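Task: sequence in, structure out. Protein: BHLH domain-containing protein.
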Amino acid sequence: MSSRRNRITEDEINELVYKLQSLLPESRRRSAGRASASKLLRETCNYIKSLHREVDDLSDRLAGLMATMDDDSAEAQIVRSLLDS
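Result:
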C-alpha cells in the first residue's frame, strides 16, 4: 500500500515537465516545443552539459587572468574578494 501513496500521477508528471521546460532558455524551449518528456529531459541534459562547459571555460580564463596578476595588486585582491563572497 505504501507504494501506491508514493506513486506520482500523470498530471503531476505533466506539471513537473512544464516547470522544467520553463527553466530552459527561450531558444531551448522553442526547440523542445510541446515535446515529450523524454525529449525535454534530453534538452535539459544538453543544456546542463553546456553550462558545465561554460563554467570550465570561465574557470580556465579566470585562472589565466589570475596567473598574470601580481598577487599583491589591487586587481588581484578585488578578484579574490569577489570569489570569496
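The radius of gyration is 21 Å.
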